[in-house]
Amino acid sequence: MKIKVNYYGLIADLIGISDENFELNFNESNELDLRSIFNHKYPALLKINYKIALDTEFTETINRNSIPNEISLLPPFAGG
Questions:
Q1: For residues 49 and 74, what is the distance between their CA atoms, to the nearest angstrom?
Q2: What is the DSSP letter of 70?
Q3: What pLDDT, in 10s, does the model give residues 32-80?
Q4: DSSP for 3-63?
Q5: Contact 76, 52 (CB under 8 A)
Q6: Full-model pTM
Q7: How far apart are CA 36 and CA 17, in angstroms?
Q8: Structural domains of the chain, with CATH
Q9: In angstroms, how far apart are the furthest CA atoms of the chain?
Q10: For labeling, which of 6, 9, 29, 42 is most exposed (least CB within 10 Å)?
């Protein structure tokens, strides 16, 4: 199953792209650990802290039964 993934700020700079269509392979598992998947695909991500959002909800896992429209990887940010 393909899903759009957006990479923002420092993450886009580190991996060299701002978005891609990503293939999710559930195989026999109903849930995937997204952080492990992205860290494996892009080892540069191991050097930074980042958040993962499915649509507008922060989470580290994706379930076969609740596929979002998009995944976003967000770098650390500060507000004021």
A1: 9
A2: E
A3: 999 999 999 999 999 999 999 999 999 999 988 888 999 999 998 765 5
A4: EEEEE-HHHHHHHT-SEEEEE---TT-SEEEHHHHHHHH-GGGGGS--EEEETTEE-SEEE
A5: no
A6: 0.88
A7: 19
A8: 2-74 (3.10.20.30)
A9: 44
A10: 29
Tokens found for residue 18: 């701002």
Is the pLDDT at 8 greater than 90? The verdict is yes
Q: Which residues does 49 contact at the CB level (< 8 Å), separation at least 6?
A: 76
Side-chain-side CA neighbours of residue 5 (13 Å) = 22
Six token digits for residue 29 = 């598992």
Alpha-carbon span 1 to 12, nearest angstrom: 23
Location of structure tokens 């507000």: 79
CB contact set of 11 (below 8 Å; sequence gap of 6+)? 45, 48, 50, 73, 74, 75
